[in-house]
Structure formats: structure tokens, C-alpha cells
Amino acid sequence: MQRTIKTFLVEDVQKFKDQLLVWSQQFETVLWLDSNNYKQQYTSFDAALAVEEFTSIKTDYLNAFEKLKEYQSITKDYIFGYLSYDVKNDIEELNSNNFDGLDFADIYFFQPQKLFFIKENTIEFHYLKMVDDEIELDFEEIKKTKKFKSQNNGSNIKIKLRIHKDEYYSKVTKVLEHIKRGDIYEANFCQEFYAKNSTIDPIKVYQDLNEISKPPFATFFKNDHQYLLSASPERYIRKKGSKIISQPIKGTAKRLRSKIDDTKIASDLARDIKERSENVMIVDLVRNDLSKSAIKGSVKVEELCKVYSFKQVHQMISTVVSELKDDIHPIQVLKDTFPMGSMTGAPKVSAMKIIENLEETKRGLYSGTVGYFTPEGDFDFNVVIRSILYNSEKKYISYSVGGAITAKSIPEKEYEECLLKAKAMKFVLQNSK
């Protein structure tokens, strides 16, 4: 199906982005992706907005990849959406029986009626089935949109831990026992922070979270009463033509106010043996996953353990690339690599079984992925971390954090790293008025 495309120039791009996001709230389905102008090698746009379903697929994990393959193949258009972590159950004989307070579907993608791409100061409108002058009228309406004003007077959000400190230490010790026995080399063990009977203004919380983090894979997602407010710094996987790019993150250090101290802590992270070993293990796992669909000999590590700095933290990121075989369907690449190794551990299946038994909460959309497909079958997906999930119907707020447990892990230090990763989410929830 053909889209009508029109281009406009705007002087104040940041103002227009804010107006566009506020304007989008009239629709039941909204997906906003923002790179925050983070300088990165692989990118197609600065920001994108997809709103209003024309067609969609929402289903559980059973045959999820086949259903998505059929939907993407028939649609042959832009589709935006997510895969929850629990789609792992479609790939391996696994299950997800832990508590779920959010009730997100396992998989959801939609073909948007209205689609916007922002590249520097150029705004591209891509509309399906439009009426006369609809693009021009929407453009004028967006420019008149006022700044968001919160309707929520700031409910006193009491954040609770699903796993308390002593229990967390005990569970990490059990992971370490598995490592010593040789069951696994590494496991990404996660814990949930949550609030019941609480309400927030999702757009305000998202804007505050994005402002203090400025990550390259920020996401605002709304589907009726369910929301994802994400400040993710991590790309899961991208396809551009025959090239596949994966950029796992493993290794975290806090930012410091003193420039000298901040530079030193970043340098220390780059040389940290434990953090580097975590990263290298996942790089090996990613190389193995990519090799399933790659031309022989094409899997390469472009960057290994490079430290990148964000507003809240320093992160150690590696970049692994491959060239895709001619006969591989784009969905197969996702199936071969999902869930991303940075959120599971190695070996992947053994790690997933162990963390399922030790974690208290079903991950759902957390540590899943959000992104899009182009009409040509290219795609780009993030990793859902540093994110707040919200079900306004159930008045349930949740954010989870995790860390890679290796043989060198110390439970107390792993707990401190979790609190560091949770800091931004906790701050915006308790300070967004």
C-alpha cells in the first residue's frame, strides 16, 4: 500500500518534537523513538513517531515468530511494535510462570496510519489513506500544540522491592553455585521494583526520564492503558540491507561530578577484568547467534569493550556485525538471536532456566525489544532496559534492573550496581509532579 509523503522544515526541532509527542496522545496507539541526537555510527533518523493502527497483530508466544513472519510478509509496509522477553518460550522449551502485574501481550506490532520521521530540521509525514489536506492540517495543528501540563498532582508513590537485600544476596549465591558446577558461565539476574494503587502522567514521567538520561534508544509506547517509558542506551539488533549489527552492553560505572574523577572511573571501567570478561562472554554468544544466518566467515567484532558515556552512567559496549545469507527471512534473524544475550547469560538456554527459577517476576516487556520494520524488510530494535512499565487500569507501576553474575561477582557489589541502574527511574517517579 502506497503512502503519501510530504516534507516540512522547522526552525526549532526540539520544540516541534515536544509538540509532536503531546499531539500524539489523542491516539490509542503511540510509539515514539528518539535517538536524542546521540552520535552513533548506525542510524536512519533522529526520531520517529508511529500512531493509529491501520492493521495490527497481538498474540501470545505460541508460534509467535511464524505469525509475525506472515504479518510482516503480507503487510510489506512500516510496522512498529515489540517482542516481550517471554517470546523465548516459542524458541525453546521454556516457560514463564512468575508473577505478572502488567499483563502486556507477548507480541504486538501495528501498521501505523500516520508516521513521522525527523532528520535534523526536516520532518517527513508518511500517511496511509489520507483525506484532502490532512497532512497540512495536522502539521499546523501540531505547531499550535501547547506544552504538556500534568493533570496528576503527584500521588505519593511508595516503591517496594520484590526481592529484599538479604534474599537478593542468597539468590546471587545460588547463581554462583551454578557457575561453580559448570552449569553456566554467566547469568543476567533481575529484580523488580514496583508500586501498587498508584497513578502517573506517563508523558510527564517519560519526558523527565528522557531529560536526565538522553539515551540513544529512548521510547514512549502507549497501547490503550499500557505504557512503556524507556531510556534505553542499548541496541539489540539492526538490519540494513544484508548487514546485521548487534551492540550488546555489559559493564557499568556511575558518572562523577569532577571531570578528572569521571574520566578516571571511565578509564578504570575499560580496564576492569571482571567487566571485560562479562562483555566478552556475551560477545561470543552474539557471534554464535549471528553465525546461524550469516555468510560463512562474515561475523566480525567491529568494537570490543569500548566505553561510552551517557548522562547517568558509563557503559561498556561491543559491536558485532555479519553479512546475511541471501535466502534468510528478516524474522529468522530475530528468532536466531532472541532473547538478546546481554539479558540472559551463557549458555543461553541454561541461563534462562536458572533465572526463571530464581526471579520472582515475569519479565514481560522488560528485557524484550521495541522497534520497527521497513517495507524493504530492514529493521532496528532496542533492548528494553532502564524503563518504567505502567498499567493505568490496574494502577500498577514497575521497573526492573539486573546485572551479569559471573564467577568473580560479589553479591554486595551486584546489589549496588542494581541500585545505580534503578536510580533514574526511582527519581522521576518520586519527583514528577
Description:
- The protein is 32% helix and 32% strand.
- It has a 20-stranded antiparallel sheet that branches.
- It is globular.
- The protein has helices at 13-23, 64-75, 88-91, 134-144, 165-181, 202-213, 259-271, 273-291, 330-337, 348-358, 411-431; strands at residues 4-9, 29-34, 47-59, 79-83, 107-119, 122-127, 160-161, 186-195, 217-223, 226-232, 235-240, 243-247, 249-254, 300-309, 313-323, 345-346, 369-373, 379-382, 387-391, 396-405.
- The chain has a single domain, classed as Anthranilate synthase (4-Layer Sandwich).
- Strand 14 (300-309) and strand 15 form a beta hairpin.
- The protein starts with a strand and ends with a helix.
- It has eleven helices and 20 strands.
- It is an alpha+beta fold and 433 residues long.
| Beta-strand percentage range | 25-35%
CATH superfamily: Anthranilate synthase
Class of secondary structure makeup: alpha+beta
When the domains are counted, the total is 1
Supply the CATH architecture.
Answer: 4-Layer Sandwich
CATH third-tier fold name: Anthranilate synthase
Roughly how many Å is the radius of gyration? Answer: 21 Å
| Mean pLDDT across residues | 95
Query: How many distinct beta strands?
Result: 20
User: pLDDT under 50 segments (min length 5)?
Assistant: none
CATH class: Alpha Beta
N-to-C CA distance: 43 Å
Apparent shape: globular
Assembly type: single chain
* Distinct helical segment count: 11
Sheet bearing the most strands, described? 20 strands, antiparallel
Helix content: 25-40%
